[in-house]
Amino acid sequence: MTSTQTALLLVDLQQDFLSSPTLTPTRGELIDRATTLVDGWRRQGKPVVHVITTVARDDDRRMPHWRAAGVWRCEAGTAGHQTPDTLRPQSGEPVVHKTDFSGFGGTDLASTLEALNASAIVIAGTHLHACVRATALDAYQRRLDVTIAADAVGTDDGLHAQATKDWLAARGITFRPVDRLLTAPEVVHEATAEELPSLIAGPDEEVGTGSKQLNHAFPAQSSHVAWTVAAGDARAVDRAVSAARAAAPGWREAGGRARAAALVKVTEELAAAADSFTAAIVADVGKPVSAARAEVARTVDLLRAVSARGDDSVVAVCGPASISEDRPVGTIGVITPWNNPLAIAVGKIAPALVYGNTVLWKPSPAATRIAVMFARLTATHLPPGAISMIAGDESTAQLVMAHSGVDAVTITGGDAAGRAARLMCARRGVPLQAELGGNNAALVAADADLDAAAIEIVAGAFDFAGQRCTANRRVIVEESVLDDFDAALRRAMSHVVLGRPEEETTTVGPVIGESARARIERAISRAIRDGAIPVTGSAEPDDAALRAEGAYVRPVILRCADPRLEIVQEETFGPVLVVQPAADWAEAIDLANGVRHGLVAAAFTRSPDKQEQFLRDIRVGIVKLGSSTAGADVEAPFGGWGHSGVGPPEHGAYNRQFYTRPRAVYGLSI
Question: What is the DSSP string of 222-256?
């Protein structure tokens, strides 16, 4: 008896679909991931089937919405019908033509899979919300096992695609990234308490229970697993929510002064434990020690600033018969990232607590150990359940956001996390605060001090390997001084030190892991292939030994004249700085505004008129004059426009907007 096979279906990876300017992931990244998948599949001797849309003018079978719009795509014989060179069919690989959404509709795909004796399929292609979805559902109907290559499917309708992913996953269709599809199948077993560490956030409060194990490697030693924790499952989330809600009445009624006093004690303990937290941040996320020390200090400052607001009045007289009062929202779902594992988390947790809420905290997997350290530190000063922490990954975060016991969600993450959060919160009608990164630009005028600007911008771009949401991703320079500024950038690169994160002189440590390194280096390679020009630094580091140990990426400056390129439009979240020329100051502002994100922008000019024009016309949530985009004050509003933010900003007086709800009260004696 012939054994069954798993066939790879490449669906609609054609130029007309790949050319969409809003495609996510980007055209280049999608082609790269699909190419890696198909090459690996072929090396393993597994079957590849190409499913492509083909229409012809002499037999018009276009989909009705194309016909209604007068659109011709994927027309036989045109360049748009073709697939990229790396994805074209090889000899003997079946090609199935379709005219509608599903690869099974009116085609011979079913008979092709039967001839291959395929009982399972893996799908890569475009679009997740349309043709990939329809093909997956028809395969499901035929009782085939269906897996979708999570990072090798594209969409130009992000929210629809996220909803599709959630819906399909709930019906047994699996999503796995390319790297996992090309390795041995994952074996998940019911782990015992003896096999997994018991991480305790407070007395008897488990933060990691479930059968799925999450491994974390130190970024500077990426071949070694540093620790393992269990991802929280639905039962663990239920328990954590119950603990948070049980603590809510007593914590709410304790009053603002008592809550602030408890946070003052937490602040004192954190300040005393600064060295331990600094060491953990250096080890677990690879942050250079000077930056890690600064993060702990910033966290202490955040706690002090929030504690000072415990005496703020929450009641105001509105009229002769009415008052308003600010009431806590309830239990806040707090989803935090790895790059500032302490400061970002505490910047959300502290105001939630001081205004009378309780917290269900799901940190990034890489930040789990640091989160446990902080939760333990607070345990003697806060009632059990005030901070209810749970370890986990993306699936755990979604369980938290979807739970009926969570009254609001605050999250810091990327575009994909933001889409998931929007959908989860919209379905339940709960408030969302989301900080979703930035593709931040610094503008340099011809009248600027070029060397001073270059030093600021290089530090903002490369410190901590560019892994900050406020990092300087782009610099837009008036053309008349472009060459002079390139020279200034080369000189400024002498201040950039790529090295081990525990060394005091290091400014650029490793990126968070090997998958991040591969993603960043693919983006750099595509940019150079598409015409970006590397600007060499003053000294090239000898990084061979470092790269053999950990996930290091050499800092790169790229000059790019085409604002449409992916490297300009997308946030790399790595040590990459893109230089864009501008004919004049007005065009510089237009280029800065010409991306989806709108978190931070900076301007370097001595001209009051140019400063005024910049402040008037730039579309971001944070503006700076004469300094890098990186960094922010603990009391200033922190939030982005466009794709960078949802809901009210964080910090300072703005925290009350999210963590409380105003209520009008009539009939009291005033």
Answer: TTSEEEEEEPP-HHHHHHHHHHHHHHHHHHHHT-H
Residues 156 and 227 in one domain: no
Which pLDDT belongs to residue 550? 95
Query: Is the Cα dihedral 123, 126, 128, 132 positive or negative?
Result: negative
Q: Using one digit for the tens of pLDDT, what is the confidence trace for 245-287?
A: 999 999 999 999 999 999 999 999 999 999 999 999 999 999 9
Residues 6+ apart with CB under 8 A from 231: 208, 210, 212, 213, 214, 365, 391, 392, 393, 395, 396
Q: In CATH, what number is assigned to the domain containing residue 329?
A: 3.40.605.10
The residue whose two tokens read 């501008």 is 582
The amino acid sitting at 236 is: A
Tally of structural domains, the chain: 3
Distance (Å, whole) CA 153 – CA 98: 18
The predicted structure's pLDDT at residue 198: 38
Q: In what order do the strands lie in the sheet with 48-53?
A: 95-98, 48-53, 5-11, 118-126, 145-154, 174-176
Task: Count CB atoms within 10 A of the CB of residue 213.
Answer: 16
Residue 646 lies in a domain: no
* Residue 112, C-beta contacts closer than 8 angstroms, at least 6 positions apart: 49, 94, 96
Is 576 among the domain residues?
yes
Residue 192, domain member (yes or no): no
**Rounded mean pLDDT, 475-488:** 97
Distance CA 380, CA 395 (A): 30
Considering only 103-107, 374-378, 475-479, 500-504, which range has the smallest mean pLDDT? 103-107
Residue pair 476/441 in contact by the 8 Å Cβ criterion:
yes
Residue 496 and residue 506 in contact, taking contact as beta carbons nearer than 8 Å: no
Confidence of residue 312 (pLDDT cuts 50, 70, 90): low
pTM: 0.91
